[in-house]
Every structure is written in structure tokens, then in C-alpha cells.
Design goal:
The complex is a heterodimer of chains A (500) and B (166). Chain A is an alpha/beta fold. Chain A has 13 helices and 17 strands. Chain A has four domains: 84 residues, PAS domain (Beta-Lactamase), CATH 3.30.450.20; 75 residues, Helix Hairpins, CATH 1.10.287.130; 157 residues, 2-Layer Sandwich (Heat Shock Protein 90); 117 residues, Rossmann fold, CATH 3.40.50. Chain A is 41% helix and 25% strand. In chain A, strand 13, helix 9 and strand 14 form a beta-alpha-beta unit. In chain A, helix 3 crosses helix 9. Chain B has 166 residues and is an alpha/beta fold. A six-stranded mixed sheet of chain B has the order 2-3-1-4-5-6, covered by helices on one side. The longest helix of chain B is centred in the last third of the chain and has 17 residues. The two termini of chain B are 20 Å apart. Classes of the chains: A alpha/beta (500), B alpha/beta (166).
């Protein structure tokens, strides 16, 4: 058997040749793959051939079509089709590649399925980010819109408290103040969540004393919850290093929220904070564990998974709903930011234990530096210029500065143009300006002031309901000395001015 | 004698090209996605305004760009249907470019755009999004329910007849 014969036997049963005339009539076919009837039109065999021949009759160039699925009668094959135009005769050549193409199908299927799934995931992620962005912008607006009127509400309530009131009036005023402060706390919580989620919240690494922090916090709650039937106690093990580097404000916030949560869920019994050292690394990093245990209503197993979700409120049959549900979300997010962990164990009707583990760099004792007494004791008269267009806020400012014991004298300009005129005629110790939400007048004014050599030394305090970190940075970068977030108390305003 | 019209269905993979043809030619539908390898050709005889037309429909494998499709498949086409999936943005993200490509390489050949899987409107996909330009000029079809499928093929067939006469 010659090579040619072997080749022919290999190819022959895979290749069918059909001769057709210019009208597409079948002249001859070897019927290796499909039985084609002589003197019938090719297009009658399969729709594939239908629109094919008109293209090729007048064409001297041959054409080929790969991977054509043909079903003729009961026979189904995937073939490559070549149409040859030789010596004014047309030949259709079908080459069977069925097994080859069938083998590739699962690979293509898998590839396509995975691309579709990947794109779906990408799209869902994009939608999620867009929603987050919208939520954060919404939160920023909401914060601003609420802080401004809240500032007036709390400010006037505070001033009212300084007037002569009956016992009943004082009691009513107390309720007003507590309600207002509760709204403020909720606003701060919302802002914190927003800051954490946008990565704008930075954890500080400043020196602090843990013992002092814990003692102060416990004292605060003992006074605050004086009338409750709950005994609050704490125990700090002797090997816990007191001198640490960290963010005391945020640590206080974590423990504060855990205590608040424990108080909300406990009718009577005890709340205990236990602090212990888990390990001390060679690099002087102490891993500390804070356990907040209560004898409260506890959390059922199915609710444990959602306890740190800010949008889930846990309802308990015997108790009122858990506040805003934001506190524990902040706790978890802050702990993660600090590189720690939080675990909750709980049993319904017996109580809960929140175990927080946090790493702290420890510090060695440093000799105390001598301090000189501050100030001369003589109160200097200081003229303050406030730029405020809102009449309610103007009134509040005037009342806040009335009879202040720091010697501040307030003058108000209704806008920046009037302020510039006043600055030309009088010397001011400081300027208070509000940062309006949509306009950039605050920043523009500060920049103008700082570019004037005669006025550039006057410190500017910006007060705003716009409490997002980016806005604060923009104001400070423009040259403002400090930023005071609304709502603020009279004490906070005067203190901020003193610190300029 | 019926006039043959070659219609090529274009679009990304998985947008429902094969399902649309099955719905139109065989009035059947399956939820399963089975990849098309190469080309399947089906035909359907229709009568439009007393004109007998044999639609020869080429169901080719999906491509994100028409330029990647085998050139021989598009040869001699009388009309194109470009299909996208309303629930998969990547299938209509480059629609403008694809229309430009057809205009440039197949000038004068009518094109119909189908936004397929419109049965997902209001459930998974926002219909309002597709009511704005350029989408509001497209036809929204469902191979699953048959919505607008017949109409879409008819519209294109009429366009091919008009294009042929002119």
C-alpha cells in the first residue's frame, strides 16, 4: 500500500465533493458525509447553501466557511465548507471536523460562563460603590442640614439654663437638652461611620495612660447611671502596662459604646470591665484584652451574626428597641482600623460578653518637664469679629458672648464685604466665620485675608455644620486657625477662641 | 418565487441570539445557555405585503466585536440584527462603535438592534434606563416570552425589501 493510498483512506471518509452547475443544481456527489440527490438544487439540501451560490457563480475566487453546523436528514455534522471555482465548474467540498469542534465546545462554554460571571460581579461591585458614594454624600448633606438648626436649639437651651427658672422649668429644660444632645450623638455616630467607610478616619498614635482613661470612663458611667439598679465595676490586672501609645479618644469611644449597649440591655445585675494582658511582643507591643460582661437579656444565636450591622435593629420582647443601632458598628469598625478583634458571646436571659483585643505600643517612663504657670491673671479686652448672615445665629452669638468672663467683645458683620470694611477701621483679635455649604465664600474670604499683610495675622475660627473631614482639611489648608463643628456649646466656643 | 434574504445575527455571547431564532422559527425556548460554535443556519418563509420572502438566518457564535467574527459569515448579508442583553452592561457598552463598524463596512445594509431579555425589566433591570437615547430607538425583545420577536424580524425584513428596491 503506497503512502498515497494510506492518505486517501484516511481522508476519503472525511471529505465529500459535490459538483454543481451555475444554477446550483447538483451534477454529482460522492455522498461520503451526506446523501445528496442528483439533479436537485443544493439549497434544498440545507438552508446554509441558500444564499451562497449567487455570490460565487461570477466569482473567480474560491470561498471557504469554517465550522458550519449541518443537519441533513438524521445526520448531523460540523464541517468546513469550501467552494471551488475551477474551469467554469463549481465544486462544493465538505470536510468533516465534527469531533474536533465538539471537543472545543466545553472549553468555550466554560470560558464564556466565567466571563459572564466575572462581568456580573464587576458590575455588581460598581453598583455597590455607586450606592456607597450616594449614601456618603447623603450623610454629609443630612449632617449639615441637621447640625445648623441643632446648634441654635442647643445654644438657646444652654442660654435659657443661665436664666432664673422654676424647678419645673429647669426639669423641662433638662429634657430638651438631653434630647438635643442625643441627636448630636446620633449625628456624630453617622459621621463616624461615613468617615470609616470612606477611609477618612485616621487612628492616632499619641501617648496616653490607660489606667487614667479607664478610671475616668468608669467614673463617668457611675455618675451618669447613678439611679440604675446595675453595679458597674472594673478590674485591671497588674501586668497591664499603663503607659501606651494609641488613640485614647477612639478607645474611649469603643468602651463607651460597649457600656451604653450593656446598660441598654441590662435591667438589673452588674456590668464588669476586665482588662488583661494577652501577650507582650519583643517589639514592646502589648496585646490587651478588654472584656465587657453584663447580666442582661442576652442575644439569641441568629441575632449574633447581625449585631454589628448598623441597619439591623434588634427588638427584644421585654425591652425597647436598641437606640439607633449604630454604636456597635462603630465599635467593630474602629477595632478593625486599630488592628484588633472583637468577639461576642451571649446567652439569652443570662447576659453577653464582648471581648475586644487591641495591640498597643508601650512606652517607658519619661521625666516630667517643669511647667510654668499660664497667663498673667489679668483679663485683656479682645474684640472678636463674627461673620454671620443668619439672624437666628447672630442672636445666639450675641447672647453667648454676653457677660463672658474672658473679656471678649463681639461685633457682627452680616457678610464678608462688611467684614472687610470693619477690619479696615478696627483691630480684631480673632474672626469667626461660618463655612456655607454650597458656596466657597468662607475659603475665599480666608484666602483674601491671608494675602493681606495687615490682616494675615488675625486667627480665623471656622464654625460649620459641614463636618466631613475633607471640608475641614480644605478650610485649614486655606489658612483657618481652627474648625469648630456644629452644634457647639458656649463653653466649647469660648475655649476654641482661647486656643487660637 | 420567494426572494431569499440572508440575515446575520450579531452580538456578544450569551445575549440570546440562538434563543431568539428558536423562538422566531420554532416557537420554542430553553433557559439553558449552550454556546454556539461556528454557525447554524435556519430558514423561515414569510409573506410581507404580498412579497414572498425566504429569510435565511445565520446564527453565528458570539463576539464582543463584529470585527472578530469570521468575515465569510457576514458575506452577502441582506440585513443584520445586533442583539444585546439588557441585564449585562458589557453587551451594550460598545454599541456605538459596533454600529459605526457596520456603517463603514456594510454600507446601506439595514440593521435592527434588539435589547433582549426584556422580561427582566422591573425585576432585575430598570426599564427607565433604556427609555433614554440611544436605547429608546431600539426594540426590546424577549426570546423567553416572545415579546417583539416576530415584530423585530418583520421590521428588518421590510427594511431589506425597501433597501433592495432602492
Amino acid at each position: 500500500m503506497s503512502l498515497k493510498d494510506i492518505k486517501a483512506s484516511y481522508i476519503d471518509h472525511k471529505v465529500q465533493i459535490i459538483a454543481v452547475d451555475s444554477l446550483g443544481l447538483i451534477l454529482a456527489s460522492d455522498d461520503v458525509l451526506f446523501p445528496f440527490k442528483k439533479n436537485h438544487k443544493l439549497e434544498e439540501q440545507h438552508p446554509f447553501f441558500y444564499t451562497l451560490l449567487p455570490l460565487l457563480v461570477h466569482d473567480t475566487v474560491s470561498e471557504s466557511f469554517t465550522c458550519v453546523n449541518l443537519e441533513i436528514g438524521t445526520i448531523s455534522k460540523i464541517v468546513d465548507v469550501s467552494i471551488l471555482n475551477k474551469e467554469d465548474k463549481l465544486y462544493v467540498v465538505l470536510t468533516d471536523f465534527t469531533s474536533h469542534y465538539i471537543e472545543t465546545r466545553p472549553i468555550i462554554q466554560e470560558k464564556n460562563d466565567s466571563v459572564i460571571a466575572r462581568n456580573k460581579l464587576t458590575f455588581e461591585r460598581e453598583v455597590h460603590f455607586a450606592k456607597e458614594e450616594f449614601k456618603n454624600i447623603f450623610l454629609a448633606h443630612l449632617n449639615h442640614e441637621i447640625r445648623n438648626p441643632l446648634n441654635a436649639l442647643l445654644g438657646f437651651t444652654e442660654l435659657l439654663g443661665e436664666t432664673k427658672l422654676t424647678f419645673q422649668q429647669k426639669e423641662t429644660l433638662g429634657v430638651l437638652q438631653r434630647t438635643g444632645l442625643h441627636i448630636k450623638v446620633l449625628m456624630d455616630d453617622l459621621l463616624d461611620i461615613s468617615k470609616i467607610e470612606t477611609g477618612a478616619l485616621e487612628i492616632k498614635g499619641v501617648p496616653f495612660n490607660l489606667h487614667t482613661l479607664l478610671a475616668g470612663l468608669i467614673k463617668h458611667f457611675q455618675i451618669k447611671k447613678n439611679n440604675s439598679n446595675i453595679e458597674l465595676s472594673y478590674c485591671t490586672e497588674s501586668d497591664v502596662p499603663p503607659k501606651l501609645f494609641g488613640d485614647p479618644t477612639r478607645i474611649k469611644q469603643i468602651l463607651y459604646n460597649l457600656f451604653e449597649n450593656a446598660y441598654k440591655n441590662t435591667k438589673e445585675g452588674s456590668i464588669v470591665l476586665n482588662t488583661s494582658l494577652v501577650e507582650m511582643t519583643e517589639k514592646d507591643v502589648a496585646s490587651l484584652q478588654f472584656k465587657v460582661s453584663d447580666t442582661g437579656s442576652g442575644i439569641s444565636g441568629d441575632q449574633l451574626t447581625t449585631i454589628f450591622d448598623p441597619y439591623v435593629q434588634i427588638q427584644r420582647e421585654e425591652l425597647i428597641p436598641i437606640g439607633s443601632g449604630l454604636g456597635l458598628k462603630i465599635v467593630k469598625d474602629l477595632i478593625i482600623l486599630m488592628g484588633g478583634t472583637v468577639v461576642v458571646d451571649s446567652e439569652v436571659a443570662k447576659g453577653s460578653v464582648f471581648t475586644v483585643t487591641l495591640p498597643f505600643k508601650t512606652r517607658k517612663k519619661t521625666p516630667k518637664s517643669k511647667t510654668n504657670p499660664k497667663g498673667s491673671g489679668i483679663v485683656m479686652n479682645k474684640r472678636i469679629l463674627a461673620i454671620e448672615d443668619d439672624t437666628l445665629s447672630q442672636m445666639l452669638l450675641m447672647k453667648q458672648f454676653l457677660d463672658n468672663d474672658k473679656g471678649y467683645a463681639l461685633q457682627i458683620a452680616p457678610n464678608t464685604i462688611a467684614a472687610i470694611q470693619m477690619l479696615k477701621t478696627k483691630i480684631y483679635s480673632a474672626i469667626i466665620i461660618k463655612q456655607t455649604y454650597n458656596a466657597t465664600t468662607g475659603i475665599e474670604f480666608i484666602e483674601k485675608l491671608k494675602s493681606n499683610p495687615k490682616l494675615s495675622a488675625i486667627p480665623v475660627l471656622v464654625v460649620s455644620g459641614k463636618a466631613m473631614i475633607k471640608e475641614q482639611e480644605a478650610i485649614i489648608n486655606a489658612g483657618a486657625a481652627a474648625f469648630l463643628k456644629k452644634p457647639y456649646s458656649k463653653y466649647e466656643l469660648i475655649t476654641a477662641l482661647q486656643q487660637l | 418565487m420567494a426572494q431569499p434574504r440572508k440575515i446575520v445575527i450579531l452580538g456578544h455571547f450569551g445575549v440570546g441570539k440562538t434563543s431568539l431564532i428558536r423562538q422566531y422559527v420554532d416557537a420554542s425556548f430553553s433557559e439553558d445557555y449552550l454556546v454556539t460554535v461556528g454557525v447554524h443556519v435556519k430558514k423561515k418563509d414569510v409573506i410581507i405585503n404580498d412579497h414572498a420572502v425566504t429569510l435565511v438566518i445565520w446564527d453565528i457564535e458570539g463576539h464582543s466585536e463584529i470585527a472578530s467574527a469570521r468575515a465569510s459569515y457576514l458575506l452577502g448579508a441582506s440585513g443584520f440584527i445586533y442583539v444585546f442583553d439588557v441585564s449585562r452592561p458589557e453587551t451594550y457598552a460598545n454599541l456605538d462603535n459596533q454600529m459605526e463598524y457596520l456603517k463603514e463596512h456594510f454600507s446601506g445594509i439595514p440593521v435592527e438592534v434588539f435589547g433582549n431579555k426584556c422580561d427582566k425589566f422591573e425585576d432585575e433591570v430598570s426599564k427607565a434606563f433604556f427609555e433614554t437615547p440611544p436605547f429608546n430607538s431600539y426594540l426590546f425583545t424577549s426570546a423567553k416570552t416572545g415579546e417583539n420577536v416576530e415584530e423585530g424580524f418583520m421590521q428588518l425584513t421590510i427594511k431589506t425589501l425597501v433597501a433592495h428596491e432602492s
